[in-house]
Design brief:
This protein has three helices and three strands; from the N terminus they run βααβαβ. The protein is an alpha/beta fold and 70 residues long. A three-stranded parallel β-sheet has the order 2-1-3. The radius of gyration is 14 Å and the shape is flat. The chain starts with 11 loop residues before the first strand and ends in a 10-residue tail after the last strand. The relative contact order is 0.27.
């Protein structure tokens, strides 16, 4: 049975299309605090990446207009 408790080590944090302000300030602070921090620039890449990292935390910039394939 899979444990629902948060792991002490190894939690990954993903940012989907973060604003430049977040990249320049928050990400560097998290990295200095030894978090595993990643940026996903293209929303189409998010699903397979997050599927492989089920325990990850993902922050999504909802203000970013996504270009949709027609």
């Amino acid at each position: 049975m899979e444990s629902r408790e948060n792991p002490i080590f190894g939690r990954k944090v993903f940012f989907l299309n973060p604003p430049l302000q977040i990249e320049n300030s928050v990400l560097s602070i998290l990295k200095e605090s030894e978090y595993e921090v990643y940026i996903i620039r293209d929303y189409r890449d998010a699903k397979p990446i997050l599927a492989e990292n089920k325990d990850a935390i993902c922050f999504v910039n909802v203000d970013k207009q996504l270009e949709m394939d027609v």
